[in-house]
Amino acid sequence: MSKAFNPRKFLDIGKGLLEDRGYDEDSRVRTAIGRFYYAAFLVAFQKLRSQGIPIQDDSKIHKEVIDAYMDRGLSSIGDLLDQLREMRVDADYHMMGEMRLSTCRRYALLSERAIGLIDGIRTFR
Fold first, then answer.
1. Which of 8, 18, 32, 46 holds its CA 20 to 30 A away from the CA of 106?
2. What pLDDT score does 85 carry?
């Protein structure tokens, strides 16, 4: 049986991309932002599943995960996930604006913060 993937590795990959000058900055930043979001999102999703909280609709999984934290009075986590999601959407779909390295570093910190808060949850209400 294979070991489950640890989504925290996405955070490491994103940070590595920020330092890798082998690619142009805009490409690195856009890709890193996606990795920062998915690191936090998947940790959040795994925490819900480990607590027996079902996510019913795969087509709306991102909204359902965020709402699950908001509905349980954990708006600090829900808000961080939503900020990261919005920036990931911008990075993936809005090609006209340039993404800045300094902004991306801020999102790395937001992802780390979200993961730290999620890791601190023992049980949900």
1. 46
2. 95
Report the C-alpha gap between 13 and 33 in whole angstroms: 10
Show the DSSP H helices in the chain as ranges. 8-19, 25-50, 61-71, 75-93, 101-119
Domain of 47, in residue numbers = 8-119
Side chain identity at residue 6, one-letter code: N
Please state, in angstroms and rounded to a whole number, the distance separating the CA atoms of residues 125 and 93: 36
Give the Cα separation of 31 and 125 in Å (integer): 35
* Number of domains into which the chain is organized: 1
Measuring CA to CA, how many Å separate 120 from each of 9, 14, 113, 124? 19, 23, 11, 11
| 125: in domain | no
User: Within a domain: residue 1?
Assistant: no
Q: What is the rounded average pLDDT of the residues 65-93? A: 94
Rounded percentage of the chain residues whose pLDDT exceeds 90:
69
The whole-model pTM stands at: 0.92
Q: Is the pLDDT of residue 125 over 70?
A: no
Joined tokens for residue 56: 């019913």
